[in-house]
Amino acid sequence: MKKVQQGFTLIELMIVVAIIGILAAIAIPAYQDYTKRAHVSEGLTLASSAKTAVTEYYATKGSWPGSNASAGLPSTISGNAVKTIAVGATSGVITVTYKDQVKNDAKLTLSPTDGSGGIQWACVKGTDMEDKWLPSNCR
Protein backbone atom coordinates (compact mmCIF):
# COMPACT_ATOMS: atom_id res chain seq x y z
CA MET A 1 0.00 0.00 0.00
CA LYS A 2 1.07 3.51 -0.81
CA LYS A 3 1.24 6.09 1.93
CA VAL A 4 -0.79 9.24 1.05
CA GLN A 5 0.74 12.56 2.04
CA GLN A 6 -1.39 14.55 4.48
CA GLY A 7 -0.96 18.24 5.35
CA PHE A 8 1.61 20.79 4.26
CA THR A 9 5.36 20.75 4.53
CA LEU A 10 7.20 23.23 6.72
CA ILE A 11 8.55 25.09 3.68
CA GLU A 12 5.04 25.57 2.25
CA LEU A 13 3.80 26.97 5.56
CA MET A 14 6.78 29.35 5.81
CA ILE A 15 6.10 30.67 2.30
CA VAL A 16 2.46 31.38 3.17
CA VAL A 17 3.48 33.19 6.37
CA ALA A 18 6.01 35.28 4.42
CA ILE A 19 3.38 36.28 1.83
CA ILE A 20 0.92 37.28 4.56
CA GLY A 21 3.65 39.35 6.25
CA ILE A 22 4.42 41.21 3.01
CA LEU A 23 0.75 41.94 2.38
CA ALA A 24 0.30 43.22 5.95
CA ALA A 25 3.36 45.46 5.63
CA ILE A 26 1.76 47.13 2.61
CA ALA A 27 -1.84 47.25 3.85
CA ILE A 28 -1.36 48.66 7.36
CA PRO A 29 0.19 52.04 6.35
CA ALA A 30 -2.40 52.47 3.60
CA TYR A 31 -5.20 51.82 6.09
CA GLN A 32 -3.71 54.32 8.56
CA ASP A 33 -3.69 57.04 5.89
CA TYR A 34 -7.27 56.16 4.98
CA THR A 35 -8.45 56.55 8.59
CA LYS A 36 -6.63 59.89 8.97
CA ARG A 37 -8.26 61.13 5.76
CA ALA A 38 -11.66 60.10 7.17
CA HIS A 39 -10.96 62.05 10.38
CA VAL A 40 -9.94 65.14 8.39
CA SER A 41 -13.20 64.83 6.42
CA GLU A 42 -15.08 64.81 9.73
CA GLY A 43 -13.62 68.26 10.45
CA LEU A 44 -14.81 69.56 7.09
CA THR A 45 -18.28 68.16 7.72
CA LEU A 46 -18.46 69.88 11.11
CA ALA A 47 -17.14 73.10 9.55
CA SER A 48 -19.93 73.18 6.97
CA SER A 49 -22.33 74.75 9.50
CA ALA A 50 -19.69 77.38 10.29
CA LYS A 51 -19.28 78.08 6.56
CA THR A 52 -23.02 78.61 6.27
CA ALA A 53 -23.07 80.93 9.30
CA VAL A 54 -20.13 82.99 7.99
CA THR A 55 -21.74 83.26 4.56
CA GLU A 56 -25.08 84.39 6.02
CA TYR A 57 -23.35 86.93 8.27
CA TYR A 58 -21.46 88.37 5.29
CA ALA A 59 -24.62 88.48 3.17
CA THR A 60 -26.58 90.42 5.80
CA LYS A 61 -23.91 92.72 7.25
CA GLY A 62 -21.39 93.11 4.43
CA SER A 63 -18.44 92.22 6.66
CA TRP A 64 -16.90 89.05 8.04
CA PRO A 65 -17.70 87.81 11.57
CA GLY A 66 -14.90 87.94 14.12
CA SER A 67 -15.79 84.99 16.32
CA ASN A 68 -18.08 82.01 16.71
CA ALA A 69 -20.46 84.09 18.84
CA SER A 70 -20.77 86.89 16.29
CA ALA A 71 -21.49 84.31 13.57
CA GLY A 72 -24.22 82.78 15.73
CA LEU A 73 -22.32 79.57 16.42
CA PRO A 74 -21.69 77.79 19.72
CA SER A 75 -18.46 78.76 21.43
CA THR A 76 -17.13 75.20 21.16
CA ILE A 77 -17.66 72.90 18.22
CA SER A 78 -15.88 69.57 18.54
CA GLY A 79 -16.14 66.00 17.40
CA ASN A 80 -14.52 62.59 17.61
CA ALA A 81 -11.29 63.73 15.94
CA VAL A 82 -11.88 67.50 16.02
CA LYS A 83 -10.67 69.55 18.97
CA THR A 84 -12.19 72.89 17.94
CA ILE A 85 -13.70 74.78 15.06
CA ALA A 86 -13.23 78.52 15.40
CA VAL A 87 -14.13 81.53 13.30
CA GLY A 88 -11.09 83.79 13.26
CA ALA A 89 -10.94 87.47 14.14
CA THR A 90 -10.22 88.55 10.58
CA SER A 91 -11.72 87.81 7.20
CA GLY A 92 -14.14 85.09 8.37
CA VAL A 93 -11.41 82.43 8.33
CA ILE A 94 -12.50 79.12 9.89
CA THR A 95 -9.79 77.07 11.60
CA VAL A 96 -10.31 73.37 12.26
CA THR A 97 -7.96 71.99 14.94
CA TYR A 98 -7.62 68.22 15.20
CA LYS A 99 -6.98 65.78 18.07
CA ASP A 100 -4.50 62.89 18.17
CA GLN A 101 -6.53 60.82 15.68
CA VAL A 102 -5.02 62.97 12.92
CA LYS A 103 -2.09 64.65 14.66
CA ASN A 104 -2.42 66.66 17.84
CA ASP A 105 -3.12 70.33 17.06
CA ALA A 106 -2.89 69.84 13.28
CA LYS A 107 -4.83 72.63 11.59
CA LEU A 108 -6.84 73.08 8.43
CA THR A 109 -7.97 76.57 7.52
CA LEU A 110 -10.96 77.48 5.35
CA SER A 111 -10.61 80.97 3.86
CA PRO A 112 -13.57 82.74 2.25
CA THR A 113 -13.36 85.15 -0.66
CA ASP A 114 -16.20 87.18 -2.07
CA GLY A 115 -16.36 86.05 -5.66
CA SER A 116 -18.81 86.95 -8.36
CA GLY A 117 -22.08 85.31 -7.46
CA GLY A 118 -21.12 83.98 -4.04
CA ILE A 119 -18.54 83.08 -1.46
CA GLN A 120 -15.67 80.83 -2.54
CA TRP A 121 -13.88 78.70 0.09
CA ALA A 122 -10.23 77.66 -0.09
CA CYS A 123 -8.59 74.96 2.05
CA VAL A 124 -5.17 75.79 3.44
CA LYS A 125 -3.36 73.08 5.37
CA GLY A 126 -1.29 73.84 8.44
CA THR A 127 2.33 72.79 8.84
CA ASP A 128 1.37 69.60 10.74
CA MET A 129 -1.11 68.45 8.09
CA GLU A 130 0.17 66.13 5.35
CA ASP A 131 -1.16 66.31 1.79
CA LYS A 132 -2.10 62.63 1.74
CA TRP A 133 -4.56 63.22 4.60
CA LEU A 134 -6.51 65.92 2.75
CA PRO A 135 -9.78 65.02 1.07
CA SER A 136 -9.85 65.42 -2.71
CA ASN A 137 -11.79 68.71 -2.56
CA CYS A 138 -8.92 70.31 -0.59
CA ARG A 139 -5.95 69.16 -2.65
UniProtKB/TrEMBL annotation:
The keyword Disulfide bond applies. PROSITE patterns: PROKAR_NTER_METHYL. Signal peptide: none annotated. Coiled coil: none annotated. Keywords: Disulfide bond, Fimbrium, Membrane, Methylation, Transmembrane, Transmembrane helix. InterPro entries: N_methyl_site, Pilin, Pilin-like. The chain crosses the membrane at residues 7-31. Belongs to the N-Me-Phe pilin family. This is Prepilin-type N-terminal cleavage/methylation domain-containing protein.
